[in-house]
Design goal:
The complex is a heterodimer. Chain A is about 80% helix and about 0% strand. Chain A contains 8 helices and no strands. Chain A has one domain: MetI-like fold (Orthogonal Bundle), CATH 1.10.3720. Chain A is mostly helical. The chains are: A mainly alpha, B mainly alpha. Chains A and B meet through helix 3, helix 7 and helix 8 of A and helix 3, helix 7 and helix 8 of B. Chain A: It is a multi-pass membrane protein.
Chain lengths: ~220, ~220
């Protein structure tokens, strides 16, 4: 193992890891927004919105994220959408993970017992109040852990933007593998950084989940 | 530059040939990840700690890093130590190992959930430990875990697009080649997405049928 080489190039990997972290944070925010909207559509009173929500989930989850990114980044200019690689990465990955988060959020909401809502209505709360003050707070508690699973997948998914040449961890590793012919060393450097990000995020999720528990 | 789908039919043969390769890669990696998953689960549960701990480290590494990075490692790393795998084989090994680790997690839980009495009864009937595992415990565990493994296999289909970056001529790379000739990325990536979607729907249909059969066999 070429430790000297690793010591020489690791600052570039640190810089790339910061890009991966930025990508992950922005994608999480966009994904949560898409997920909340998607879940609202899927639980809507209106059949048309329900259909839109279901189509969003089915199409996005039924096709590769890589292809979605390519359509947005390479195909976008043809229909007047001009994005740089980083923007395309955030939007593509965010819309993608949003479809998975839609199902997570929807699942947590319908898992809340109907009796809760009925009891709230009996106590004189309006439908909206019952949802906001009774159903939703309980659903939030349920969704932390599965959303954590989505976020874990999302962090690993940010590697895809290497294919549209965003200089993040995987792209950097690939470039240094190409120029140094030391794949194991480069994998080790980037792998350790990924694991710090992923398992660190996992700890935060576990902590949040425990905090939100009542019992 | 607007959209023009009239160029699509002329290149459909290339796209569909790519789709065949995608199916081939998916099936080969799915088989590898299934048996690999069982093998890894047995290592994780039944071996001496000198074998188990290194394996756990490997598992931890594979679950904590992106598949794309693992593909680069396998494809370029094996070349470095003198093993020159064709891209297709490297792709299957990469996808297969990656999903074997995830399948192994599922199978481990299922093996633990199989009643201890099953193992004890099999041992009483004179089966060795290995036989009891192979003929009694693992078949029951695998049956319980077929639905979630099916979900992993559908994820595998979509992740098979990643092997295009190490040069396997499957659906995604075929689309890229056609785009290189026609300069129509939107149209052909959309076509590729549609083909993936159809394969995905077929897999979901098969999955539902298998689940129904399992439900009946209980």
């Amino acid at each position: 193992m070429d430790v000297d080489l690793m010591m020489r190039v690791y600052p570039f990997f640190l810089k790339a890891a910061w890009v991966t972290i930025q990508l992950s944070i922005l994608t999480t925010i966009l994904g949560l927004a898409c997920g909340a909207l998607g879940a609202a559509a899927r639980l809507s009173r209106f059949a048309f919105l329900r259909f839109l929500g279901a189509a969003y989930v089915s199409v996005i989850r039924g096709t590769p994220a890589l292809i979605q990114l390519f359509i947005l980044y390479f195909g976008g200019p043809q229909i007047g959408i001009q994005l740089d690689a980083f923007e395309a990465g955030v939007i593509g990955l965010g819309v993608n993970i949003g479809a998975y988060m839609t199902e997570t959020i929807r699942g947590s909401i319908i898992a809340i017992d109907k009796g809760q809502r009925e009891a709230a209505r009996t106590l004189g709360l309006s439908k909206v109040q019952a949802f906001r003050k009774v159903t939703l707070p309980q659903a939030f508690r349920l969704m932390i852990r599965p959303l954590g699973v989505n976020i874990n997948a999302l962090i690993k998914g940010t590697a895809l933007v290497a294919a549209i040449s965003v200089v993040e961890l995987t792209y950097t590793a690939q470039r240094y593998i190409g120029s140094t012919y030391k794949p194991f060393e480069m994998f080790l450097l980037s792998g350790v950084l990924y694991m710090i990000i992923i398992y660190g995020t996992g700890r935060v999720i576990t902590w949040l989940d425990r905090k939100a528990r009542i019992v | 530059m607007g959209l023009d789908f009239t160029v699509v039919p002329g290149f459909m043969d290339i796209i569909l040939l790519g789709a065949l390769w995608t199916v081939a890669i998916t099936v080969a990696s799915a088989v590898l990840s299934f048996f690999g998953g069982i093998f890894f689960a047995v290592i994780a549960l039944y071996t001496h700690w000198t074998v188990r701990l290194p394996f756990k480290a490997f598992e931890w590494l594979f679950m904590g890093t992106p598949l794309l990075l693992q593909l680069f490692l396998i494809y370029f790393g094996l070349v470095q130590i003198g093993i020159d795998l064709p891209a297709f084989v490297a792709g299957v090994v990469g996808l297969g190992l990656h999903f074997a680790v995830y399948n192994s997690e599922l199978i481990q839980t299922a093996i633990i959930a199989v009643d201890k009495g099953q193992m004890e009864a099999a041992r009483t009937l004179g089966l060795s430990r290995g036989e009891a595992l192979r003929k009694v415990v693992i078949p029951q565990a695998v049956r319980d875990v077929i639905p979630p493994i099916g979900n992993n296999m559908i994820a595998l289909l979509k992740d098979s697009a990643l092997v295009s970056v190490i040069g396997v001529s499957e659906l995604t790379l075929s689309a890229q080649r056609v785009i290189g000739k026609t300069y129509r990325p939107f149209e052909f990536y959309l076509v590729a997405a549609a083909v993936y979607y159809v394969i995905n729907l077929c897999m979901e249909w098969v999955q539902r049928r298998i689940e129904r059969r399992i439900a009946l066999s209980r």
